[in-house]
Amino acid sequence: MNKPVTCDIFCAVVDNYGDIGVSWRLARQLAHEHGVAVRLWLDDLHTLQRLCPELDAGKAAQMCREVEVRHWTKDFPEVAPADLVIEAFACELPSSYIQAMAALTPSSAAGAPLAKRKPVWINLEYLSAEDWVDGCHKLPSPRPNLPLVKHFFFPGFTRKTGGLLLEGDLIARRDAFQNDPARLAAFWQGLGLPPQAVGEQRISLFSYENPAISDLLGQWAAGSQPLTCLVPEGRALPQVAGCCGQAQGRAGEAWQRGSLRVQVLPFVEQARYDELLWACDVNFVRGEDSFVRAQWAGKPLIWHIYPQHDGVHMQKLHAFLDKYCASLPQEAAEAVRALWEGWNGEGKTLQPWNEFAARQSILAKHAHAWAQQLSGNSLALNLLDFFREIGTMRDFNFQN
Ligand code: TRH
Fold first, then answer.
1. What's the rounded Cα separation, in Å, for the pair 348 and 344?
2. Is 284 in the pocket of ligand 1 (CB under 6 A)?
3. What is the pLDDT of residues 148-178, one digit of tens each?
4. Is 161:132 a contact under the CB 8 Å cutoff?
5. Does 306 sit in the ligand 1 pocket, CB within 6 Å?
6. 132: exposed, middle or buried (C-beta count within 10 Å: 0-12, 13-18, 19+)?
């Protein structure tokens, strides 16, 4: 089969928004751009509703933005497996579903109707820039005691990985938005802000709780340039509010401290969050999906990586920095490194912010070129190619 007709994506929300952020994006892209009938099995509809407010979190099954969204509960229904089965981030599939996949025939050459073929089963992994990813992408993992093989599919930053999620028209839509002053002004107005003043910086701040927040906001407040910091409701907001002398904060509130104005934003739907990243001069992002979206924005970014207990996240951070900074002039690379390390607990941010801000125009050009360079490696297209590759391999093995 050239292209999957149907696809089941399974997603278990571990915490926050990243797992469903990625799964939802992929589901929509496969459905909208490639005409695949996608069913998304999700154990927590309320989290998806934050990203897509039109979803009804009380419904067990519904069509939403061309995707069939199903509430994934313990009593999993009997369903026919799809052509392409994606388990997001190694969530364990229902055993009845695995048994149903195992019962299907291995290849169309067996004379079975196409709908009865064994699915291509993918484990979509977390994003990492580490070098080992190149060698592990697409590796098979045979299921013990069952005639099934799952394949690892790694997103990443090199041609040997699965690439990154990127809608076919995203870069063009970004450019149209960024080059249209009227749209920018309307966007700011929608958030309750005036158009950006000459000499004013606008910076979005999406992070986990972070001890470095207080120093950074203090520095911005004491700066000579007006700076507006846009903070969504969520984990970092209590700290930001505290730095502005507030007990707590709510969407719509704004506080002034010296040169710094903090504007509290509601958690907006995914497409609007993209626009925020496109509109700001610098973006602080976290986790996985906002980190990738900030790269597509083509603006300087600072990443708060998802902390892991064993500290391996710092290896991931450095692996990304090695790639991202490779083509930057040395001083700019050092500024990025020092600020990211400080923001992630390995040092201070005070001096690094000054160094970073002083090189903002070089960093902006670099961010733009970086997005361009990565944009040729689309995860959804690679996934569909891999589906074809596995299908051809199976047919060949059957005939030989
Ligand atoms: O929310 P995150 O921290 O998510 C994750 C999870 O914690 C996961 O378990 C972990 O493994 C992973 O990080 C690395 O960060 P992330 O990935 O950036 O997801 C945030 C999503 O929320 C992303 O899709 C963008 C979206 N978003 C909006 O749609 N609107 C908003 O206003 C904001 C601030 C974000």
1. 9
2. no
3. 999 999 999 999 999 999 999 999 999 999 9
4. no
5. yes
6. exposed
Instruction: Tell me the two tokens of residue 161.
Output: 């990985």
Instruction: Calculate the dihedral angle through the C-alpha atoms of 13, 31, 155, 122, rounding to the nearest 10 degrees.
Output: 70
- Rounded Cα distance between 122 and 90, Å, is 9
Identify whether 19 is a catalytic site residue. yes
Query: Is residue 129 lining ligand 1, measured as CB closer than 6 Å?
Result: no
- In this structure, the residue with its CA closest to atom 15 of ligand 1 is 287
Question: What pLDDT was estimated at residue 400?
Answer: 40
- Going by alpha carbons, the residue nearest to atom 26 of ligand 1 is 270
Ligand 1: which of 19, 22, 265, 290 to mutate, most ligand atoms within 8 Å of CB?
290
Ligand 1 binding pocket includes 206 (Cβ within 6 Å): yes
d(CA 396, CA 381): 23
Q: What single-letter DSSP state applies at residue 119?
A: P
**Who contacts 155 (Cβ-Cβ below 8 Å, separation ≥6)?**
124, 125, 126, 127, 161, 162, 163, 164, 165, 379
Task: Walk along the chain (400 residues) in steps of 10 and give the mean pLDDT of each run.
Answer: 92 96 98 98 98 97 98 96 96 96 74 70 98 98 94 98 98 98 97 95 98 97 97 97 96 97 97 98 98 98 94 96 98 98 94 97 98 98 96 66
Give start and end residues of each alpha helix (H) in the chain.
18-34, 45-51, 95-102, 132-136, 170-178, 181-190, 212-222, 237-243, 270-279, 289-297, 312-325, 330-343, 350-358, 360-374, 379-399
280 CA → ligand 1 middle, Å: 18
| 18 in contact with ligand 1, CB cutoff 6 A | yes
**169 flagged as catalytic:** no
Single pTM value for the model: 0.96
